[in-house]
């Protein structure tokens, strides 16, 4: 329930897209003009393993769901038309969205095509979208000598952002308000008064920071601070990077983003002579035994529960993606840009989604704990909303969640057995366990 009067202190855990944009939106909302705003992160900004920090993220309104398509379209306009997208932070390269006919992903692409056509008709930009009815026409538009899938479309109004640069820009805007206190500290648990009332957080050195409202926006780590089992889980996604020469980058400078919704594999045009090949998939789980953060069952075993939590290069600097994932990226590179087929991957990364069963964000008050708000569940598609999601989150904090997202972002009453995102956009196999896949083979 929204607090009345407005909280005198709001503490946000996590300075990714969800946390940082919330901080900015709070500074812009007169209701919170007198509120002290604290923004905590376990890493100095920009968090090297945060989902929001990377060389690139796709910016598209190409969604099979109408509400997300409309919100993404508003975000896309901000990327295109405001300073956020200037100075190379946003590139409208076009997006080729494909699938294999009759297989997983085709329905998503068809729904998405319908939605972007309707959005473009509203804006008088019908010519931006063109259906690609066979592999030949896909390859022609991609222009790299390769392609993927056998049906899809190109949307010339979509593109990609330099993710880290976008976050740095927003961070500076937040700094410039002079309203937000950035604190480098790792939250270890919520602090409660009695069983239900959250009064702050405890950080790694044992000290306690108090607040009237705690917002958990810790991305894929959120499930370590509050029990999200059956509602959200961390899944590890595979990223690989190829170093290019200046001439090779130039050769690819006009390529669109290419995303195959059947396999989840995609390539984003290069920048700074680095090309990214990655997979939007069900991902790997990293089951971890932790103390029940909700502390409900007081058992002699210390109430241990198992949740999937991120394992990143910050925890383990030698971490390299499992062979299974690297092979999938290799196959994509071979297919999509054949002349780079055997170029070694210079780097790889596991990046963690906060996944929910339907790919909906989780932006809601916790139903049991007072003064606790959750803003996570990015489900692998949250970055593009950087210019608009903070305002949505603050509306939800104020009890004015946008009508079309009220149900989607609410706390699901019934947890599912295993969270597997079934929004029709994922490739790969569900349920892979990171440790097992690493044991089967990895470069390091
Ligand atoms: C590989 C990959 C590809 C993606 N591609 C796209 C794309 O093309 N387009 C798109 O729109 N979206 C994409 N996404 C999704 C998008 O990046 C995420 O939805 C979004 O960045 C999530 O933001 P967040 O703030 O929830 O999480 P994060 O950015 O992960 O932020 C969470 C923050 O919390 C901090 N934290 C964690 N635990 C603690 C703690 N205990 N105490 C203090 N701080 C803590 C972390 O350090 C981190 O900075 C992709 C994501 C990944 C991983």
Automatic annotation (TrEMBL):
Domain FAD dependent oxidoreductase, first and last residues per copy: 10-394
InterPro entries in alphabetical order: FAD-dep_OxRdtase (IPR006076), FAD/NAD-bd_sf (IPR036188), MTOX (IPR045170)
Keyword Oxidoreductase on entry: yes
Entry cofactors: FAD
Single GO term (MF): flavin adenine dinucleotide binding
Coiled-coil parts of chain: none
Keywords, ordered alphabetically: FAD, Flavoprotein, Oxidoreductase
Keyword Glycoprotein attributed: no
Family, similarity comment: Belongs to the MSOX/MTOX family.
Protein name: FAD dependent oxidoreductase domain-containing protein
